[in-house]
Specification:
The protein is of the alpha+beta class. The chain has 29 helices and 29 strands. Helices cover about 45% and strands about 20% of the residues. The chain is globular.
């Protein structure tokens, strides 16, 4: 094996270079300590996993069946769990134990309309209420699983596929979510990812991921003029449409120009999708079977029969997308009665007529939200599996009056866009910047009580993040009428206009959080003084790039008037303290913060004017106005003073008068004090603390069971394979000739014994027993296998040795000409070195000839005399001698002769002779050096290259170019 490795190891470096060259958008270079990342498109029906790792372009990870997508299904049976296609197969036999279409149950309380719809579609599931959080729990016998636990297990499987694909540990990911996911759904998915030991870099909306994928492959077509596209998606569970713009935008800070994709308008229908069509087709097939009267049992009362009908309806739906009619066929549907029915596409479309009427509504809503007309949209691009339905395409084509764009991979576009984003966010990759700006679907407002003019309390509402506002974004709101501890609420706003009658489908409640502020009066009393004025309490809010809302911090803002004397008295430590306070309190003088919150402050100013409430920007505006007024007044004051002092006064007198009369404006310093705040989420109790630990412990126990099961299966398969392989090989003369009759008989007897044991008592053995028996069998058979391997590999090793000897002899022939005796001016090698190499070559040849002759005298089943290791050892010895001389040749430099003093010019004849002599010397110098013919050993060639150019394998920076 050593010889084979020695012969082939040098050719393995080119594959990755070829892969990198094939990348269309991203070019990767290997990075030290680089880590792979993944994206997961966890759809209702299918799960796709995108991966990117250093040196390898973006790709879809394959599952254990080598497929690019996996059913989002998990099943439990007899304490074991299975995923994907195995779970679907088990679900036909035991429907109540196999769970699918789970994603839209995240963050929902038990009374949510979407949970009721799920129960109606799948009546055989036992769904109960979590006693603490009121969320969905699936019950299977004595076991119960929360929706987060089920989703976490699916994400863990996706993590396994990604790790198998990249050969690296995956810890970070970008997850794709429907755009209509609210705060409850998004936080629940993040909790599920934490259970799967994954760090979520970002939750990205599906249409945003698709738009990013579409843009990175068309980067050259994007310019300073906005281009508008509409992306239409019909998946298994829902339908959505999004209007986006592509444009090159210059960053004000870096002055660099980057492409930007911005979501301008979104429309969706969360119950219109392939699942609803499949359910209707299932119910139609069930009714037709009942009409046949083959059995008295109602097919709808039998969960297993309903599962079979559901599976057949899914197959039939896909076939009718390409065919006008097809037979539905199920063997043994109910009471061992078969079912066969011809269904036409026309019948199927009739079942879904009202659904087709809803196809264009999301598109129209997206256009309305964006404020754009259809004629300015460049293309309507389709993605999502159910956009392949011919009827859907016909309706859309008729509605928009133009051809639909189908140049996206409907299944993988979102996943590939998300993995590009993952590489952008992760460390270890350098990505060509492509900025994404998403849009708020559900407005968020702050609600608080304030005392009115009459003394009565009244409720005040302030909008934070309005509909279609871009995010990520920060906002600030100021409370300047509150002088004591108070609380305020954060809630969804204007849901009726956004959701209409479906406002109850949003995860959790309308209320998002209650925020309690404390020590307000204490901070005001301690801080406000004669020269210190309160400018209100500012609450800083954030909507991050995952669309998750949070309260960043709350602070009391003060303005201190500092006179010249105060400035002189202020100690160095006070100045340093103020500077540090500004740095850590998010002062508006910090450039990024100012840019982000300025817009919010201006909006608040406008609402303040109407409602007698202050905003953060008010003080700035007033001070800037005063500053402007001062600037305008100063010239006129100077003019009056100059006139009073007289026109004939000197220039020095005028300047002195101006200095005396100009009013010195006091300096205003902004101070900030942190106000303690307590945030209580009110939509759904988050999975954290003891609840999270309990879920993690449950999943860890399942993981241990899976590991034990996998180990047992691997050990059993290895033992069975070795037994079968040994029995087959011993029937072949090639192997049988390598063992003595006793050895062959012993191996056969042992194989027969283990084979019988496997099919009787050994069928339920544990992994350790299988592994022990395999080691025992290998100990008996390996001696024969080792002899066969030696006989098989020896010819190739001898060929390699012959090539090395030939190369060494050629090198020796040339090296003889580089000794002092033969070539005094190029005395590279000493006679001893030449003799040593010659002796090594001669002894190697003698050893080879002797050993080969002796080995030929031995039978194939006799102990091996000439082993491959012996050959490679002699090759290493000879290679070492040659390399020593090669390295000496590379380091050798000719001795520099001392330059003779210039001779005085004598006669013209002497000059001619001098020129002739000079030309001869020049020709001698230009003579090429004698080249040595070197050994073809690839190891020495590689070593030579590395010595000459040690930077050849250096990495390019700390990043991988994407």
């Amino acid at each position: 094996m050593g010889t084979r490795h020695w012969l082939h190891v040098h050719g393995h470096g080119t594959g990755r270079l070829l892969l990198a060259a094939l990348a269309v958008v991203a070019t990767f270079a290997a990075v030290a300590n680089g880590a792979a990342v993944m994206s997961v498109d966890l759809g209702s029906e299918w799960m796709k996993v995108g991966v990117v790792s250093p040196g390898v372009p973006m790709e879809i990870a394959l599952n254990k069946e080598s497929k690019r997508k996996t059913p989002s299904t998990i099943a439990f049976r007899n304490g074991e769990r299975v995923f994907g296609e195995d779970a679907q197969t088990l679900g036909v036999r035991f429907p109540a134990n196999s769970y699918g279409y789970l994603i839209d149950l995240l963050g929902k309380t038990i009374d949510n309309p979407m949970v009721d719809l799920y129960r109606k579609r799948f009546p055989y599931y036992d769904i109960v209420e979590d006693p603490v959080r009121r969320t969905v729990v699936f019950r299977t016998g004595e076991e119960q699983f929360t929706i987060e636990e089920l989703i976490a297990q699916l994400l863990h499987v996706a993590k396994g596929y990604a790790e198998d694909s990249t050969g690296q540990i995956i810890t970070e990911c970008v997850l794709i979510v429907p755009g209509f996911f609210g705060q409850a759904e998004r936080t629940a998915l993040v909790s599920a990812a934490r259970l799967a030991n994954l760090k979520v870099l970002q939750l990205i909306n599906d249409y945003t991921a698709v738009a990013l994928n579409y843009g990175i492959f068309r980067r050259k077509e994007i310019n300073e003029t906005a281009q508008y596209f509409l992306f239409y998606d019909m998946g298994a569970y829902k339908t959505s449409a999004a209007v986006v713009s592509y444009q090159l935008v210059k960053d004000k800070a870096t002055r660099e120009t980057h492409p930007v994709v911005q979501v301008l308008g979104v429309g969706y229908d969360r119950t219109l999708g392939g699942l609803e069509m499949q359910v209707r087709l299932r119910d139609y097939l069930g009714k037709e079977f009942n009409k046949m009267g083959k059995t008295k049992t109602d097919v709808f009362s039998n969960p297993r029969a309903m599962a079979k009908l559901f599976k057949e309806a899914g197959r039939l739906k896909n076939v009718l997308s390409a065919n006008t009619e097809h037979y539905a066929q199920i063997e043994g549907l109910l009471d061992e009665q078969d079912f066969r029915l011809l269904v036409s596409r026309e019948q199927f479309e009739g079942l879904c007529k009202d659904l087709y009427d809803r196809v264009t509504a999301p598109l129209d809503k997206a256009l309305a939200a964006s404020g754009l007309a259809l004629d300015v949209v460049n293309q309507v691009v389709l993605f999502g599996g159910n956009t392949r339905v011919p009827k859907v395409q016909d309706i859309l084509r008729t509605h928009i009056g133009q051809e639909l764009a189908k140049n996206l991979n409907a299944d993988e576009a979102a996943c590939m866009g998300a993995v590009y984003r993952a590489a952008d966010l992760a460390t270890g990759f350098k990505v060509k910047k492509f900025i994404t700006k998403d849009a708020v679907l559900f407005p968020i407002q702050v609600v608080f009580d304030r005392e009115g003019d009459s003394g009565a309390m009244r409720q005040v509402r302030r909008m934070l993040f309005g509909a279609m506002n871009s995010y990520p974004q920060k906002k600030v709101i100021t409370f300047n009428k509150h002088t004591d501890d108070f609380e305020f609420g954060v809630q969804y706003a204007e849901l009726e206009s956004v959701l209409g009658s479906e406002s109850g489908t949003l995860g959790g409640s309308v209320e998002l959080a209650r925020v309690q502020l404390s020590e307000v009066a204490k901070k005001l009393k301690a801080s406000v003084a004669e020269n210190v004025e309160s400018k209100g309490i500012k609450a800083h809010f954030m909507l991050d790039d995952s669309g998750i809302f949070s309260l960043a911090n709350v602070e009391l803002v003060l303005e201190k008037t500092v006179t010249k004397e105060d400035e002189d008295d202020e100690s160095t430590f006070q100045k340093i303290g103020n500077t540090i306070s500004k740095l850590f309190s998010g002062d508006s003088t910090d450039k990024p913060s100012e840019t982000v919150s300025e817009g919010a402050e201006k909006d608040e100013d406008e609402s303040t004017a109407k409602d007698s409430t202050d905003a953060e920007g008010q003080a700035k505006d007033e001070s800037s106005k005063e500053g402007d007024a001062t600037k305008k007044e100063q010239p006129s004051e100077s003019k009056e003073n100059a006139t009073a002092d007289g026109a004939d006064a000197s220039k020095k007198t005028e300047e002195s008068a101006e200095a005396k009369n100009v009013t010195v404006k006091p300096k205003i310093v902004t101070l900030k004090e942190t106000i303690p705040s307590k945030v209580e989420l009110t939509y759904v109790v988050p999975l954290q603390g003891e609840l999270f630990e309990a879920s993690a412990k449950r999943l860890s126990a399942l993981e241990e069971v899976d590991k034990a099961k996998k180990r047992r299966e691997t050990a059993l398969n290895a033992l069975e394979s070795f037994v079968i392989d040994a029995q087959v090989k011993l029937d072949e003369q090639e192997y049988a000739s390598c063992g003595t009759p006793e050895e062959i008989a012993s191996i056969r007897a042992r194989c027969s014994e283990i084979s019988e044991w496997l099919y009787e008592d050994g069928s339920d053995a544990d992994a350790e027993t299988y592994e022990t028996k395999l080691e025992e069998l290998r100990a008996v058979a390996n001696e024969v296998y080792a002899r066969h391997w030696e006989h098989q590999e020896r010819p190739e090793a001898l060929t390699a040795l012959k090539q090395m000897i030939n190369g060494s002899e050629a090198f020796l022939h040339n090296a003889r000409n580089l000794t002092k005796d033969v070539n005094p001016e190029k005395d590279v090698f000493t006679p001893v070195e030449i003799e040593t190499l010659e002796k090594a070559i001669r002894s190697t040849i003698e050893w080879r000839d002797t050993e080969v002759a002796e080995q030929k005298k031995l039978a194939r089943n006799a102990p091996v005399r000439l082993t491959v290791k012996d050959i490679t050892d002699h090759m290493a010895t000879l290679d070492r001698e040659v390399k020593y001389l090669v390295n000496k040749l590379k380091l050798w430099r000719p001795k520099v002769k001392p330059t003779p003093p210039p001779k005085p010019e004598k006669t013209n004849e002497k000059e001619g002779e001098k020129e002739s002599s000079s030309k001869e010397e020049q020709k001698e110098d230009e003579k090429p050096e004698e080249t040595l013919e070197q050994t073809p050993d690839k190891d020495s060639e590689d070593a030579k290259v590395e010595e000459i150019d040690p930077t050849a394998t250096e990495k390019d920076g700390d990043h991988t170019e994407l």
